[in-house]
Amino acid sequence: MPRYFALLILLVWSNVYAEPLAWRPVTVKNGIALYQQAMPSGQVRIKAEFEATASVSNFMKVMQDTTQAPNWLDRAKIVTVLSHPSELEYIVYTEFFAPWPFKNRYMVTYSRYQFTANGRLDLQITDRHPSLAEFEQLNDVEHLVRLKDMAASWLVTPLDGEKVNIEYQASADPNGLLPDWLTNKLVLKSALTTLSQLKKTLENSKQ
């Protein structure tokens, strides 16, 4: 019997630590509600929701204009399209500035746009795609550290009055020597900066 209860307790605690915790509010600023979720790895997953005076097509144009991405994507040094497999698929290289003395981070991601029956846009971004390794070999990344397990989603819903509601989720492993406390602090600050600048960019592009 003691062995049974010991095993039961172990299984319960394993399940607790295997599952991410509930979403916790971080802040609401510039109309952007930001949340965080603690992960077993020690990093946080982020979620945000906001409205913008823009259209779904505006959102797509801003996202696809990678030359302008460093103007709203916080800490982005380079964003460039490596390949365009189809009208709604992109393979993108992105490099981010890291705080001194850490090395800059980079990622090679696969983006896919999909439209739902009610006109919503679902954009999924991941670093898991068979062709990504090929593109990584074409770039000089010896002096950089690759972001791992990157996953992000954007859900853009058209609203009345030429507005959209935008829901965003993202997580990634910064890899390397960045401590979790610094990583999480930077992620939350950078997310709010990015989304605030994106909202402004979307609304300016609508004019």
UniProtKB/TrEMBL annotation:
It comes from the Bacteria. SUPFAM superfamilies: Bet v1-like (SSF55961). Residues 23-207 form the START domain. Gene3D superfamilies: 3.30.530.20. InterPro entries: START-like_dom_sf, START_dom_prot, START_lipid-bd_dom, START_lipid_transfer. GO terms for cellular component: cytoplasm. Pfam families: START. GO terms for molecular function: lipid binding. This is START domain-containing protein. It comes from Pseudoalteromonas ulvae. The lineage of its organism: Bacteria, Pseudomonadati, Pseudomonadota, Gammaproteobacteria, Alteromonadales.
